[in-house]
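User: Could you go from structure to sequence for me? I need the amino acid at each position, not a summary. Structure tokens:
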């Protein structure tokens, strides 16, 4: 079975409680439950994790190298714009990587326009709200190789 790891970075545990005008009114649990349902229909398995700690996100990326995870969908949140360490960890991961942002970071402050993670990502989705995660998973499923 194809395994996908979904990683959410710092402060995304607050989704649905603050700033709905930017990040929408769904909670992180809503997003994760939707992805699990979508995955099951395709015979895929999704594991979702959120952390406010850079090192914990890196440890999960390292673990994905060893447990046959096919792809990582990651919203690194503010670490997008600061973390060479997350970029380095993703560079050591051999599967596919899709970077997702709820908001259109390019319409926002200049410091959000640069992403270290985009240097590694196979695809980047921004500004579609929670649908961005669904689109990322759909793209991964659609590109599944027969007998992979
Ligand atoms: O648009 C995105 O998904 C971001 O990755 C979200 C990050 C931000 O730093 C990036 O530039 C773009 C911020 C996540 C904070 O999430 C909150 C959600 C609800 C309430 C407060 C923060």
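Assistant: Here is the amino acid at each position, in order:
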């Amino acid at each position: 079975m194809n395994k996908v790891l979904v990683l959410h970075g710092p402060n995304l545990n607050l989704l649905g409680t603050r700033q709905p005008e930017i990040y929408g009114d769904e909670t992180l649990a809503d997003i994760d439950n939707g992805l699990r349902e979508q995955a099951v229909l395709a015979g895929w398995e999704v594991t979702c994790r959120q952390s406010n700690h850079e090192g914990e996100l890196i440890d999960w990326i390292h673990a994905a190298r060893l447990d046959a995870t096919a792809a990582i969908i990651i919203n690194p949140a503010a670490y997008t714009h600061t973390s060479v360490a997350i970029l380095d960890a993703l560079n050591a991961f051999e599967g596919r990587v899709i970077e997702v942002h709820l908001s259109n970071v390019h319409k926002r402050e200049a410091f959000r326009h640069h992403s270290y993670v985009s240097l590694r990502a196979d695809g980047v989705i921004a500004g579609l709200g929670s649908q961005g995660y669904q689109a990322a998973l759909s793209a991964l499923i659609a590109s599944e190789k027969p007998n992979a």
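One structural detail worth keeping in mind: The longest strand covers residues 69-75.
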